[in-house]
Write a structure and sequence with these properties.
heterotrimer; A alpha/beta (352); B alpha+beta (71); C alpha+beta (596); A: 352 residues; alpha/beta; Rossmann fold; six-stranded mixed beta sheet; three-stranded antiparallel beta sheet; 16% strand; B: 71 residues; alpha+beta; Alpha-Beta Plaits; 24% strand; disordered C terminus; zinc ion binding (chain A); DNA repair (chain A); zinc-finger (chain A)
Chain lengths: 352, 71, 596
């Protein structure tokens, strides 16, 4: 009867035990946002450091590993910065067409055929295979269609689109929210991983910050795996959400990064030291030029950040009229006397 | 010079401890050392015997508890 | 925000610890044989603690061994709050211990030159078991280059083949239905095996076994194989066993495993004899577990029995783990199975883990197909929150919409249960004094005697509480959640985060929970630990040093700083002595000589 060793009123110990039990039991959701911006990838691949195929295969292994952790674990994949779709959910793939059993049968047949073509896999766990195949499938078709779309855009003369990473991020958060609200998955833990190749210029500042705050509020960590140029905003995203930001210079060992530093389950976070850098660039970007601002102006009505004052002397975001006198004063070249701080309509900010 | 003694640590409330000490005084060679109000070091092989004796003693003392089953 | 994670997982923990114990105790040779199969690796991986999983992932793609100290670096150092032991450290030690027990983690000692001082020092490196690493990599990547393929791969392949074949036949049959009816054809046309059918099939099988255990009147007795296993596992016993046991020793409560039949000393009891089996203490405990752990309990016993019957445990385990990775509602050809596994197949059909349609033309054995049921496919899934076998089956039992709980318990110990299932009533009867039975519900009262009776039968208070919790009426759960949210909101609004952490989520009235625990304590007033008492320390330094080390590794049960004594569990003793000798040698003072 040694088993009966539990005291009714001493719960300190059992509380501790609970913590670890919870750590072990709760399933989690991993959402990956893959930046597929073709122009950026072209740059990276030309420089010879990175290969899209390698990254995708490393990513698939990571998704498999996540599913291996716990049978209740789920994965989802979004693509961002695609010229064809913008931001889109790739897996799980909700297709309206295959509602009928006939469709699903066709689907599974297609899957099976693809199995031979794409993965050449044998002995792979079935669940993994289904996920991997549908992802590879989708990316395959994406790559096929992307060039023509890009060409038509180039012909029209606009090669620069606003990145849709924030779109993917907000979609991902909505997806998490929906799952967590549903009865079946209540209590599901989630985290987001961004694999990003584009620089900050492609990021719309306001929407990305809003997504970050949403994630922070939902207590969802945003991990960032940065290939290519460093990104200030994503650093801030991971910092604000207790995530990991890793800038990878040598992508050959990508799988090692993905399976260690970027593989920390939300439930392990209280225990494990996060391998993230401590110096974070907190600068914001100018609303007009999209460049990072060291010292700039802030609209006192809507707090929009400006590096230059627009010619019409109106805030570009909220259209409030700025005080002309003040602006002329601010625009004055510095004299020997120190500038008096504007405190009515505008003020200088020092962000760093 | 530190010493290590093999045995079983018994953790219980003081009333039970008193009972075990009483059992020890009746049968001997059970308690190796009394540590504090709630702990005793006993001979590991005597544990089942202690338990049996205890429940015997306790059921004698707690007989009338049977009535208040609605707490 | 969201409801707190309720620990309705005690029973699944129980199963985990039992299967883990079994796996730990296998010899290393069997381990390495097991790790050849990717499915098995996956299943074993899922059984590990989270941190151990994380360690495996970090080591998996690492070609070289890494220093042991690196494993520590991942762990956040925790502020020591008062005398609390470092929970993170303990958790880490546990995780590493599990990895070592399963021979997953190998330690290598290397002499390394210190980069600056140039001194030679021994550093412990760790590396994953190479066989496991290869198989697990294969499981994750789906590649296996240059290595001879083993059986599990063939399975996957032949499954694919067979499915393709069956699809072909399906197609041809839809074109020309007059072609000769093959087996697959028959099934496709006559009755398609649906998930719903499989669910009700396995439920019927499993319920039947449970009904037999509680002694309700049933039409079809479970097969002899099931009955033998029930008896072997000590969940049930023959009247003659009981007399025998009582005459020998009334006190000992370990598993009464009677393997005379297995050893061939005594003839096997006849089927008729087995039908008179009676439930034992362990049987009662068994009934209170959730269905997943019940199955595991039986399967583990099956494993032990199969060893006696000279079946290869690797084959048996691989098959069990493979079942967990199969897909519900899909048919699989039997030709992929080894001979041992074919024997197992028949047994597993009896438990309802597998549906194996009997065919008329028995000569066509190669093309036969078996269907894993939900009981089988959720074997290796331990998430209690999602659709596992137990929830699905509970839905089936209640036949209502998704709510599975039907028990209401009041603070005055009265209990109401909306059920018509004789099984549930029988289970309740184990610890509740049932009073009235209505058409769709029973009422009763939890009394000291009723709980005592259960406790004496070997059911623990925790089991009773978990059972009540997991079967609580949705109304009770909702109320508890509201109460929790309100308290939480209040405490956080006044900024009392410490109390906010302490708030418990209570489905059952706390009075009842405490009283049940008190009744248990009444039965068992003492708590014992085996180990060693350290005393007569020469100085404070020695004492403090050893004590703090012992507390760090979590082996100190009791301490008395004034008299300089502490008590160490027997597991931790060796470690402590080693440490003591190390530091004492270092400080060149007298060494500890334990007189055991």
């Amino acid at each position: 009867m040694d088993a009966i060793a539990d005291r009714a009123f001493v719960d300190v110990q059992s509380g501790k035990g609970n913590l670890h039990r919870v750590v072990d039991e709760t399933p989690s959701l991993l959402i990956v946002i893959l930046d597929v911006s073709p122009l950026e990838w072209k740059k990276l691949m030309d420089s010879g450091t990175l290969d899209f195929k390698n990254v995708v295969s490393a990513l698939l292994v990571m998704l498999n590993s996540h599913m291996a952790l716990n049978s209740g674990n789920k994965v989802a994949l979004y693509i961002a910065n695609s010229y064809l779709h913008g931001a889109e959910l790739v897996y799980p793939w909700f297709d309206d067409r295959d509602d009928s059993s006939d469709g699903s049968e066709q689907n599974s047949k297609r899957r099976r055929m693809n199995a031979d073509n794409i993965l050449k896999a044998s002995g792979i766990y079935r669940q993994f295979r289904i996920v991997d195949e549908s992802i590879v499938d989708k990316l395959d078709s994406l790559i096929k269609e992307e060039p023509s779309k890009l060409k038509s855009m180039v012909n029209k003369g606009n090669t620069h689109i606003k990145g849709t990473l924030s779109g993917a991020l907000s979609q991902a958060l909505s997806y998490i929210n929906r799952l967590q609200k549903s009865d079946e998955h209540s209590g599901l833990k989630a985290r987001v991983l961004c694999i990003s190749v584009s620089g900050d210029s492609a990021l719309p500042y306001v929407s990305i910050m809003n997504s970050i705050f949403a994630a922070q509020k939902m207590k969802i960590s945003v991990d960032v795996c940065k290939l290519g140029p460093d990104s200030t905003f994503l650093q801030q995203a991971s910092d604000a959400t207790n995530g990991v930001y890793i800038h990878i210079n040598n992508p050959d060992g990508l799988i090692q990064y993905l399976s260690t530093a970027l593989f920390i389950d939300p439930l392990l976070r209280p225990i494990v030291v996060l391998p993230t850098n401590t110096s974070i660039d907190f600068r914001a970007s100018c609303f007009i030029t999209n460049k990072l601002v060291d010292v700039g102006y802030v609209c006192s009505v809507c707090l929009c950040i400006l590096s230059v004052i627009p010619d019409d002397e109106r805030c570009p975001t909220c259209h409030s009229k700025f005080d002309h006198n003040l602006i002329t004063r601010l625009k004055r070249k510095p004299k020997v006397l120190p500038l008096k701080m504007g405190n009515k309509r505008k003020k200088r900010v020092v962000d760093k | 010079m530190a010493r290590a003694i093999k045995g079983s640590l018994v953790e219980c409330d003081p009333s039970i401890k008193a009972l075990i000490v009483k059992i020890d005084s009746d049968y001997r060679d059970i308690v190796i050392e009394e540590l504090d109000d709630t702990h005793l070091l006993v001979d590991p092989s005597k544990i089942p015997f202690i338990k049996r004796e205890l429940s015997k003693l306790l059921s004698e003392n707690m007989y009338n508890l049977n009535e208040d089953n609605q707490a | 925000m969201s409801a707190p994670i309720q620990s309705s997982s005690t029973s699944s923990d129980l199963f985990k610890s039992t299967i883990n114990e079994y796996l730990d105790n296998l010899p290393e040779a069997v381990h390495s044989q097991l790790y050849r199969s990717p499915e098995t690796c996956l299943a074993i991986f899922r059984l590990l603690p989270s941190l151990a999983k994380f360690y495996i992932m970090t080591l998996l793609f690492q070609e070289t061994a890494i220093p042991y100290a690196d494993l520590n670096r991942w762990i956040k150092p925790q502020k020591a709050t008062g005398h609390h032991r470092n929970a993170n450290k303990i958790y880490q030690n546990e995780s590493i211990k599990r990895l070592k027990a399963l021979n997953l983690l190998k330690e290598i000692r290397k002499k390394v030159k210190h980069p600056t001082t140039g001194k030679l020092t021994t550093i412990v490196f760790v590396q994953l078991n190479p066989i496991f690493r290869q198989s697990f990599r294969d499981a994750l990547t789906g590649f296996r280059d240059g290595i001879p393929r083993d059986q599990s791969e063939k399975i996957a392949e032949t499954i694919e083949e067979a499915e393709a074949e069956s699809e072909k036949t399906l197609e041809t049959s839809s074109v020309s239905s007059s072609s000769g009816p093959s087996l697959e054809n028959l099934f496709a046309t006559k009755f398609k095996i649906t998930v719903g059918f499989l669910d009700s099939y396995c439920l019927a099988k499993w319920e039947n076994i449970l009904h037999f255990m509680v002694g309700s009147k049933i039409k079809h007795y479970p097969s002899i194989g099931v009955l033998t296993l029930l008896r072997y596992s000590g969940l049930m016993e023959l009247p003659s066993d009981r007399r025998h046991r009582q005459s020998v020793d009334a006190d000992e409560d370990n598993f009464v495993v009677d393997d005379h039949y297995i050893d061939g000393e005594r003839g096997p009891p006849s089927g008729e004899e087995l039908k008179s089996l009676l439930i034992t203490k362990n049987g009662f405990q068994f009934l209170l577990q959730d269905i997943n752990s019940q199955i595991w309990t039986l399967l583990l016993q099956y494993l032990k029995m199969s060893e006696k019957l000279m079946m290869n445990p690797v084959d048996v385990l691989n098959f069990i783990f493979m079942l967990g990775s199969l897909e519900l509602g899909e048919g699989y050809p039997i030709k992929v199975l080894s001979d041992t596994q074919l024997i197992m197949l028949e047994d597993l059909v009896d438990y309802g883990l597998i549906f194996y349609p009997k065919s008329e033309n028995s000569e066509d054995t190669k093309g036969r197909i078996f269907y894993p049921t939900r009981l089988a496919t959720s074997l290796t899934s331990e998430s209690t929150k999602f659709k596992t076998a137990s929830t699905v089956l509970n839905e089936q039992i209640s036949n209502t919409d998704s709510n599975q709980g039907k028990i209401i318990i009041e603070t005055n110990f009265k209990i109401y249960c909306y059920t018509t299932s004789p099984l549930q009533i029988a289970i309740l009867n184990l610890f509740v004094h049932l009073k009235i039975r209505f058409a769709n519900m029973v009422t009763g009262i939890v009394t000291r005697e009723s709980v005592r009776g259960a406790l004496i039968n070997g059911i623990t208070a925790d089991q009773i509480i978990t059972y009540l919790e997991s079967h609580a009426h949705p109304g009770m759960v909702k109320k508890a959640e509201e109460k929790y949210a309100k308290k939480m909101e209040f405490e956080t609004s006044i900024g009392n985060s410490y109390t906010a952490d302490q708030i418990k989520y209570e489905v059952l009235p706390p009075t009842v929970v405490d009283q049940i625990k008190l009744w248990q304590l009444e039965l068992d007033r003492i708590q014992t630990f085996k180990g060693y008492l350290y005393k007569d320390f020469a100085n404070d330094f020695e004492f403090e040093k050893l004590l703090s080390y012992g507390e760090e590794i979590g082996v100190i049960v009791w301490r008395d700083k004034i008299h300089r004594k502490f008590f160490v569990t027997s597991d931790g003793n060796a470690q402590l002595i080693e440490y003591a000798n190390r530091i004492l040698r270092k400080s060149a003072s007298r060494s500890v000589t334990p007189s055991t």
